[in-house]
Automatic annotation (TrEMBL):
Family, per entry: Belongs to the ApbE family.
Molecular function in Gene Ontology: transferase activity
EC code(s) of this entry: 2.7.1.180
PANTHER family registered for this protein in UniProt: FAD:PROTEIN FMN TRANSFERASE, THIAMINE BIOSYNTHESIS LIPOPROTEIN APBE
Gene3D superfamilies given in the database record: ApbE-like domains
Cofactors required: Mg(2+)
Reaction it catalyzes: L-threonyl-[protein] + FAD = FMN-L-threonyl-[protein] + AMP + H(+)
Pfam families tied to this protein: ApbE (PF02424)
Protein name: FAD:protein FMN transferase
Coiled coil, from the record: none
Source organism of the structure: Sphingomonas mollis
Enzyme class name: transferase
Keywords, comma-separated and alphabetical: FAD, Flavoprotein, Magnesium, Metal-binding, Transferase
Amino acid sequence: MGTTWRVLFAAPQDCDVDGVRHAIVRRLAGLVAEMSHWVPDSLLSRFNRSSAGTWTTLPPDFAQVMHQGLAIAATTRGAFDPALGRLVDCWGFGSIAVARPPDATTIEAAHASSGWQRLTYDPTGRHLHQSGGVSLDLSGIAKGHAVDAVADLLRTFDIMHALVEIGGELVGRGIRPDGDPWWVDLEVPPGISIQPLRLALHGMAVATSGNYRRGAHTINPRTGRPITSGVVSASVIHTTALAADAWATALTVAGPVDGLTMARDADIAARLVTVADGSVQEHFTPALISMLEG
């Protein structure tokens, strides 16, 4: 996934810590083998190369990500879109390096073969249909699912109190050994002066999307070009890191006006940080305000 992972937990008596670590590594390797846009022989890469009319049977993890990802794509009216792989590649944001930004013709061609609505998914048999030329990129959701998967894995070792972090996305279960909750601070983009916001992750997850780490790498599915919404950071608190991850991407794309309306209608707890004409503003959704006041 091109990032790091970290797990803190209260170890039960006689816990095999090395065994836990090896199990986490195996679990993450399995997810990468299924859903990595960077690994040529991953199941995702093979789907992207498959012929028009092909049906691919997805394993459970991949199926869960697609099922929930397509639902979030519909709810956000495509602000989150798992089928932008060709656009991601033509801009050089994926595994293929490009010498210069694409021209309008290249963007239009990639845009024409992109979009979640070109996918057909049968949840009963976990079958995904390739309509022809559609390329998946699950960078905005698979990492969140991996955080949830590791947290769930810990329960098989009777580890009920843990904080799992992958690339800045976190989920907290139970409490710390000292009795405190798992406290985390929301990320603040460099050069932005705002008050820190500390959250207690007790059975909750948080994900932050922004262009301050890797530059303007988030694609607007509607235009096929990098976003210009003015949102420099979107943090979402949710019961799962998968949903928090996808919604953070969607709100970054949608912008402060449409994004806040969308989040309010879906009862999403989120904070958006925007910059316009040199002015920094924080925007809180009603769900987050209620959470902070509670």
